[in-house]
Amino acid sequence: MGGGVWPMIPWLSALILLAPPDLKCQWAFPIDGTFAGAYRTDASLARVDTGGAELGARARVEVRCPRRFDARLTAHTESRAGSRLDQTRVAADLALGGRVARRLRLGVTLGLDRVWRDRWPDPYQPVLDAAGRATGAVATTDRRGLLDADVSLRLDAWVRKRLSVHAEVGWERRVGDRDADYDALLRPDHLVPSDRDTVAARLAVRGRRRGWAWRAEGAGGWRRAPFQLARDAGTGATHGALGGAAPNPLYEAAWGSVAASGSRWFGAARTRVTLAGELDANVDLFEGYDTWMELGARVSTRTRLPKRVVLEAAARVAWRSWTEDGYAAAAGWTPEAPAGHPPLDGDAGLSDAVRQRVEASFSLELSRRLVGALTPFVAARLTVVETNFPDYVPGVFPSTAQIALDFDALELIVVGGLRFAL
Asked: How far is Cα of residue 273 from the mean position of the Cα atoms in its chain?
């Protein structure tokens, strides 16, 4: 693993060359970070209760040449240790931009993000007994780690004093870490790497009116997974095993989203309220197995209390539904003869016909800025996930070892620590 300031050296050299002294540029070197302890319970599909220390730091190098050119290099590193979900992240991005007209600015951003997630519990790798039955324990994996590289071009236009338009196009390449047991030939559906390519375009309009700061945004794009096979409508089969039908093509999807948000300060500028809504859609370009639509809403508040105390709260709910082509239960399915899918579990008001997922979360944070740049804080987040997915995992290798897996979740995260800024 690498980290620290060493990845910044070539980027710093580039900034020095791009900003000659005759432009009378201004330099800044802000640094901020966090040291905290955290506790997590029922952490998503990992199903673990875990605690540990978290440490994060971010350093920026900013160069601003008035009316001509600006550049920002950000290096970020964070680590979580002493838990069953340890991770280390090192990231850097370089943003370059400049005005080409009085109301028009162009920019480019390059980014790299490396995440190591070693020995995470893997629900898709059950530990079996001598008879091939699941023992309830799971093996660990490094396959949750990843490397992201992205590049984007941006245009900012100021239509008038309180109205601006922002457009962006970009490409992202993700390379996931490989599990030692992944076999692209014999078991292409088991422990599939998370690699993907994404092309995206985004258009946003921002403005202010009657005390409200608002934003409307639309985005869309295409993504492809170079190792994941597309699935048949209804059955979810990929035909990836040897000796059968020809395998399906690789997974490809088109996606789009529209969102709107608004925020305003109330009570003599002591409380800021933000309201947001979003509609997302994903279209599986093969037969629609993974075609879905999601509606989401969020409300958050930030209140400045006496003695430099800040209270922040947020609530979010999201509802996702797949299409009718996405899932079909097999007639006569039983655990003893597990061919195809078991029926959906339409409890909690969810459908019995199509897959659905509801997620609700609530978060709260209390902080107080001390003398200087130190801010102690305590935060908590509760997330509830309810689905109608059958509580089992199909096709776990070996295929006779189907295991129970509950896709519903009740997750609590509590974090307390200290932020600093230099």
From this structure: 24
